[in-house]
Target: Dyp-type peroxidase
Amino acid sequence: MLELDDIQSGVLRPRPSPYVATYILLRIDERSAGRELMRRLGAAVTTAGSPSSPLPDCGLGVALTVHGLEALGVPRDSLDSFAWEFRQGMAARAKALYDDGESSPEHWEPPLGTSDVHVVLTALSPDQARLEAALDRAYTALRELGGIQAIWRQDCHAPSTGKEPFGFRDGISHPAVEGSGIPGSNPHEAPLKSGEFVLGYPDETGGVSPMPRPDVLGRNGTYVAFRKLHQRVAAFRQYLKNAANSPEDEEVLAAKMMGRWRSGAPLALCPFHNAPGLGADASRNNDFHYSDDPTGYKTPRGSHIRRTNPRDAPVAGVVRLHRMIRRGTAYGPELPDGVLDDDGVDRGLMFAFIGAHLGRQFEFVQAEWVNGGEFLGLGDAKDPIAGSHDEAGVFSFPKRPIPRRLQGLARFVVTRGGEYCFMPGLRALRWLAELRT
Model:
């Protein structure tokens, strides 16, 4: 059984609705202060076993980069036992992640991707006023502690519409994790082994993946990939307008590229028309598979949601070995409906991947499924929405009597920065607090 009271809530529990969130990056300048911070956080973070937060009106999660573990004085043999992708850091993995061109680390928003980032705090609350009150208390505590600097902040929100900046309902699909007691959103998908997402337990291969040493540090922890993703909403709208024959056709093209209508209704269940009621129904909007649609007449094989989770579709490899828990929260103001010109405002998603295997989960999906097409027999075609296009991207989907082909896809999503982190269990936070090296 999962030791839920030792696992941070953000690992397994979906976020509440509605909510606002803030990401705060910290730098540890004094080792003793960093260890005291770990002690205080150990008493403040929310656990998967108790969704009610120790902090009034605010849920808190904490993760550390490899530089943060070094700043705390974690012994070298322990550091060397972490996943090698984590030790390299996200910026060093840019080539594998297709973070090139405008998304390359030299263009990232500082201090993202640098050795200054030690701790990532995620705070959630039902509304901005209560979040600000909690953060004021936190900043006061940091000033009193000394030796810790807050170096970056990103405020986020979950819109009342439940939609991300491109206008699609978000947060629909999440897997069930064996032993968590938290149901998944797809009744066709059996719960995944807990070791796919939490270290110290058997995974889908039947074994237990390597865990950071000592066991008290690694057990009940997981890896997290945080990414700030800028979305070119006006460019996406303009592309659809130019490629479509009518406003109704724009919505069809958007749905084919995503695999869902903007309402969240899946093409697998309503391929010919939008169904807002279905899209808003959490008991039905993820209740589908692809085995009855091998060609992709309903849901194109190259669409975003079919690429990132092929479900029961025949693909190269075992889908369950590459499943992820994904959290996405919008930042920046919404672009008003109908606006086709870029207003210069930064907006997009703060994305978080959670899993026990950075390589075969996050990096594999990003490289092979989002930015490749061989696993689906699509050659070098990329994800039409999230792929790293260069103004020459293509997207084709079956249509009678002849397939339809979109050309000239640009990069609609630009990486503004990111970090690979380790999210420790509560006992691990206490162990870090008590280091005496």
